[in-house]
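sorry for the late reply, my laptop died twice this morning and i had to redo everyting from scratch. anyway the thing you sent over, i finally got around to it. pasting the sequence first so we're on the same page, its 182 residues, then the predicted structure underneath. double check i copied it right bc i was rushing
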Amino acid sequence: MKHIRLPRLAALLLAAGLLAGNAQADPLIFDTAGNATFSALHAAPGGYVDEFLFSVDPELLGWASGTAAVGKTWIAPDRLANYGISGITFFRVNLDNSHTTLLSIFNGGTAIEFYPAAPLAAGNYGFTVNGATALAARGGSYAGNLSLVTAPVPEPAGFLMLSIGIGLLGLRSRGKADNKVG
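ok and here's the structure:
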């Protein structure tokens, strides 16, 4: 049995990582206010699909909302956008690392907005940015912000107690029948 030396193993792993492209993106890191930034710079012209990952903590629901802006470059006498974003789509990362596409809202144009159509349950998620450089023979860039607002998921026992309380209030409000004849 051959033993692979550490430098050779490291070289193999590095090569595999480079060949994988953006299959292994670093997860977004949110600040205490629930905001994370993302960006990409593409030096060569062409079309691109970039992937950004994030998580919603257990026992929380999350509402994600993002904005993005494309970079501009000086082409005398104008400043022109050097990248065009054609779509942003959210997905859920399954246990086997496959992706399930989520219904996503994307409003393109000069003020790009995007968000999933429904709240996100606890788990791993991501979104893909589809785009291309807009100017021939030039690279392009974009940057954006993803905001994730979370709230605790109500416990089933809490729903049961709420239902019983409302039922008791309903019974109490019925009152007693008035037997007086007037």
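Helices lie at 6-19, 156-174.
thats about all i looked at so far, will dig more tmrw
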